[in-house]
Amino acid sequence: MNSLHATVFGIALTCAALAPPALAQSGAPAPTPSTSGYVDGATFRAMVDESQEIVEVNLDGAILQALAKNGKKRKGADADPDDDSKDLFGKLTSIHAVIGTVKGPAADAMKLVQQTDQKLVSMGWQRVTRIKDESSTVSVLTRTVDDRVVGLVALIFDTDDKELVFANLAGEIDVTRLGEIGERFNVPGLDQVPGAR
Q1: Is 194 inside any structural domain?
Q2: What are 105-137's pLDDT values in tens digits?
Q3: Quick check: is 196 in a domain?
Q4: C-beta of residue 140 within 8 angstroms of C-beta of residue 196
Q5: Among positive and negative, which fits the CA dihedral 74, 16, 27, 132?
Q6: Closest of 65, 1, 15, 4 to residue 195, by C-alpha
Q7: pLDDT score for 49
Q8: Which has the higher per-residue pLDDT, 108 or 26?
Q9: Of 85, 80, 99, residue with least CA distance to 156
Q10: Among the listed ranges 21-30, 98-107, 135-144, 171-180, which one has the minimum average pLDDT value?
């Protein structure tokens, strides 16, 4: 995975959202009700070749809450005075991601990424980043409700190497803390997102 993909994947892993089922008519996954930041990645996961290298992350509420509580419970010599896990993970509801090589035609994967991007925009998601050329596309979108970021989606596909990246974070996201989250999960580039520190 190149550094751009690692950066966008890290951004996505920092955000939270509540997942919806895929749309039957267009094949593009759809978000759940308008207040949700979850987007179902099952359609993307199904496109990935099992015989190739895969990175998959599925963290839901209970696991994220355990991470949030972990820092609060440690005391004494094991305590980290800088551990603010509750602030970082306490409002996230899910983190889902898949990175892998597409097993079918590259054109099908590119079409799905573009349809998903367009569907999210039509439902009120905002593009934070969009990069497109002849062989690749990168799109990062956020969902806001009442001036709060409640979801983030990263969609990346490169037709040359057929590498697909889908990442969705759901829940309330403090964009200024992306750098800290990137450090904690060893994901480079999150501190470069506008507004992050």
Answers
A1: no
A2: 999 999 999 999 999 999 999 988 888 999 999
A3: no
A4: no
A5: negative
A6: 15
A7: 97
A8: 108
A9: 99
A10: 21-30
Rounded to an integer, what distance in angstroms lies between the CA atom of residue 115 and that of residue 6?
Answer: 23
Q: Evaluate if residue 103 carries a pLDDT over 70.
A: yes
In sequence order, the 6+-apart residues with CB closer than 8 A to the CB of 92 are 15, 16, 64, 169, 170, 171, 172, 173
Structural domain tally of the chain? 1
| Cα within 13 Å of Cα(119), Cβ side | 22
pLDDT, averaged across the chain: 74
Q: Which two tokens stand for residue 74?
A: 């440690």
Q: How would you classify residue 31: left for phi > 0, otherwise alpha for psi between -120 and 50, otherwise beta?
A: beta
pLDDT (tens digit per residue) in 67-78: 777 755 545 555
> How far apart are the C-alpha atoms of 61 and 55, rounded to whole Å?
20
Which range of residues forms the domain containing residue 179?
3-183
Selection from 125, 94, 102, 93 nearest residue 43 by Cα:
102
Residue 188 belongs to a domain: no
Asked if the structure places residue 157 within a domain, the reply is: yes
